[in-house]
Amino acid sequence: MQKILGIDLGTTNSVVAVIEGNLPVVIPNSDGLRTTPSVVAYTKKGELLVGQIAKRQSVINANNTFYSVKRFIGTNPNELESNLKEVSYPLIEEKESFKIKCTNLNKIFSPEEISAQILRKLVGDANHYLGQDVNQAVVPFRLILMIHSVKLLKTQEKLQV
Fold first, then answer.
1. Which of 12, 69, 78, 102 has the fewest C-beta atoms lying within 10 Å of its C-beta?
2. Can you name the CATH fold of 5-158?
3. pLDDT tier for residue 142 given thresholds of 50, 70 and 90
4. How large is the C-alpha radius of gyration of the chain?
5. H or E stretch covering 127
6. Entry pTM
7. How far is the C-alpha of 122 from the C-alpha of 18, rounded, in Å?
8. Residue pLDDT, tens place only, 96-116
9. Sheet of 91-93: strands edge to edge?
Protein backbone atom coordinates (compact mmCIF):
# COMPACT_ATOMS: atom_id res chain seq x y z
CA MET A 1 0.00 0.00 0.00
CA GLN A 2 1.27 3.49 -0.90
CA LYS A 3 2.38 5.49 2.15
CA ILE A 4 1.89 9.22 2.62
CA LEU A 5 4.52 11.07 4.63
CA GLY A 6 3.94 13.86 7.13
CA ILE A 7 6.84 16.29 7.10
CA ASP A 8 7.47 19.12 9.54
CA LEU A 9 9.95 21.39 7.79
CA GLY A 10 11.20 23.38 10.75
CA THR A 11 13.36 26.46 10.93
CA THR A 12 15.88 24.66 13.16
CA ASN A 13 15.06 20.95 12.82
CA SER A 14 12.80 18.87 10.59
CA VAL A 15 11.05 15.55 11.08
CA VAL A 16 9.27 13.01 8.87
CA ALA A 17 6.59 10.54 9.97
CA VAL A 18 4.23 7.97 8.51
CA ILE A 19 1.15 6.14 9.73
CA GLU A 20 1.87 2.45 10.37
CA GLY A 21 -1.21 0.53 11.41
CA ASN A 22 -3.18 3.24 13.16
CA LEU A 23 -0.25 4.97 14.80
CA PRO A 24 2.09 7.74 13.65
CA VAL A 25 5.73 6.66 13.55
CA VAL A 26 8.61 9.13 13.40
CA ILE A 27 11.09 7.89 10.82
CA PRO A 28 14.74 8.02 11.89
CA ASN A 29 17.15 9.72 9.52
CA SER A 30 20.32 8.15 8.13
CA ASP A 31 22.11 9.04 11.39
CA GLY A 32 19.49 7.13 13.39
CA LEU A 33 18.05 10.33 14.90
CA ARG A 34 14.39 11.36 14.99
CA THR A 35 15.08 14.93 13.91
CA THR A 36 17.23 16.30 11.12
CA PRO A 37 18.86 19.72 11.42
CA SER A 38 17.40 22.07 8.79
CA VAL A 39 20.87 22.86 7.51
CA VAL A 40 22.26 22.66 3.98
CA ALA A 41 25.89 23.18 2.95
CA TYR A 42 28.04 23.01 -0.16
CA THR A 43 31.71 22.08 0.17
CA LYS A 44 34.57 23.61 -1.81
CA LYS A 45 34.33 20.61 -4.13
CA GLY A 46 30.63 21.35 -4.68
CA GLU A 47 29.36 18.40 -2.64
CA LEU A 48 25.89 18.84 -1.15
CA LEU A 49 25.58 18.16 2.59
CA VAL A 50 22.23 18.12 4.39
CA GLY A 51 21.34 17.69 8.05
CA GLN A 52 23.76 16.78 10.82
CA ILE A 53 26.78 16.50 8.52
CA ALA A 54 26.13 20.03 7.21
CA LYS A 55 25.72 21.36 10.73
CA ARG A 56 28.97 19.74 11.92
CA GLN A 57 31.11 21.46 9.30
CA SER A 58 29.47 24.89 9.64
CA VAL A 59 32.35 26.35 11.67
CA ILE A 60 34.88 25.80 8.88
CA ASN A 61 32.45 26.59 6.03
CA ALA A 62 30.18 29.30 7.45
CA ASN A 63 29.64 31.20 4.17
CA ASN A 64 28.27 28.10 2.47
CA THR A 65 26.25 26.59 5.31
CA PHE A 66 22.61 27.63 5.16
CA TYR A 67 20.43 27.45 8.28
CA SER A 68 17.19 29.11 9.45
CA VAL A 69 16.29 29.51 5.77
CA LYS A 70 12.59 28.84 6.36
CA ARG A 71 12.18 32.29 7.92
CA PHE A 72 13.03 33.84 4.54
CA ILE A 73 10.38 31.95 2.53
CA GLY A 74 7.63 34.32 1.46
CA THR A 75 9.02 37.10 3.62
CA ASN A 76 9.45 40.64 2.41
CA PRO A 77 12.86 41.97 3.54
CA ASN A 78 11.17 45.11 4.87
CA GLU A 79 8.99 43.02 7.19
CA LEU A 80 11.79 41.10 8.92
CA GLU A 81 13.60 42.48 11.95
CA SER A 82 17.24 43.25 11.22
CA ASN A 83 18.58 40.84 13.88
CA LEU A 84 16.79 37.95 12.11
CA LYS A 85 18.72 38.80 8.93
CA GLU A 86 22.07 38.29 10.67
CA VAL A 87 23.36 35.00 9.32
CA SER A 88 26.85 33.77 8.45
CA TYR A 89 26.10 33.33 4.75
CA PRO A 90 25.59 36.01 2.08
CA LEU A 91 21.92 37.03 2.12
CA ILE A 92 20.67 39.13 -0.79
CA GLU A 93 17.65 41.34 -0.22
CA GLU A 94 15.60 41.82 -3.36
CA LYS A 95 12.54 44.01 -3.74
CA GLU A 96 10.08 41.54 -2.20
CA SER A 97 12.15 38.47 -1.38
CA PHE A 98 15.45 37.06 -0.20
CA LYS A 99 18.08 35.13 -2.14
CA ILE A 100 21.04 33.21 -0.77
CA LYS A 101 24.49 33.28 -2.33
CA CYS A 102 26.60 30.14 -2.31
CA THR A 103 30.18 31.28 -2.82
CA ASN A 104 31.52 27.74 -3.28
CA LEU A 105 29.25 27.19 -6.28
CA ASN A 106 29.09 30.84 -7.34
CA LYS A 107 25.32 30.38 -7.49
CA ILE A 108 22.30 32.15 -6.06
CA PHE A 109 19.50 30.10 -4.49
CA SER A 110 16.01 30.96 -3.35
CA PRO A 111 15.06 29.92 0.19
CA GLU A 112 12.63 27.46 -1.42
CA GLU A 113 15.48 25.73 -3.26
CA ILE A 114 17.48 25.30 -0.06
CA SER A 115 14.37 24.00 1.74
CA ALA A 116 13.77 21.57 -1.12
CA GLN A 117 17.19 20.01 -0.40
CA ILE A 118 16.07 19.33 3.18
CA LEU A 119 12.80 17.84 1.93
CA ARG A 120 14.73 15.60 -0.50
CA LYS A 121 16.84 14.26 2.37
CA LEU A 122 13.78 13.57 4.53
CA VAL A 123 12.01 11.78 1.69
CA GLY A 124 15.18 9.79 0.86
CA ASP A 125 15.53 8.70 4.48
CA ALA A 126 11.84 7.72 4.55
CA ASN A 127 12.18 5.73 1.31
CA HIS A 128 15.13 3.83 2.79
CA TYR A 129 13.33 3.17 6.09
CA LEU A 130 10.11 2.01 4.40
CA GLY A 131 11.84 0.04 1.66
CA GLN A 132 9.71 1.69 -1.01
CA ASP A 133 9.52 4.97 -2.89
CA VAL A 134 7.04 7.44 -1.47
CA ASN A 135 5.68 10.15 -3.74
CA GLN A 136 3.07 11.82 -1.54
CA ALA A 137 3.60 14.01 1.49
CA VAL A 138 1.82 16.56 3.63
CA VAL A 139 4.00 19.57 4.50
CA PRO A 140 2.23 22.20 6.65
CA PHE A 141 3.34 25.84 6.55
CA ARG A 142 2.62 28.90 8.63
CA LEU A 143 -0.63 30.70 7.87
CA ILE A 144 1.30 33.82 6.86
CA LEU A 145 2.66 31.84 3.92
CA MET A 146 -0.77 31.03 2.47
CA ILE A 147 -0.35 33.65 -0.24
CA HIS A 148 3.08 32.34 -1.14
CA SER A 149 2.24 28.65 -0.76
CA VAL A 150 1.08 28.25 -4.35
CA LYS A 151 4.39 29.69 -5.56
CA LEU A 152 6.29 27.46 -3.13
CA LEU A 153 4.47 24.32 -4.21
CA LYS A 154 5.06 25.13 -7.87
CA THR A 155 8.75 25.71 -7.14
CA GLN A 156 9.02 22.43 -5.22
CA GLU A 157 7.22 20.62 -8.03
CA LYS A 158 9.78 21.98 -10.52
CA LEU A 159 12.53 20.80 -8.18
CA GLN A 160 10.87 17.37 -8.06
CA VAL A 161 10.77 17.02 -4.31
1. 78
2. Nucleotidyltransferase; domain 5 (3.30.420)
3. low
4. 16
5. helix 111-130
6. 0.86
7. 12
8. 899 999 999 999 999 999 999
9. 91-93, 98-102, 107-109
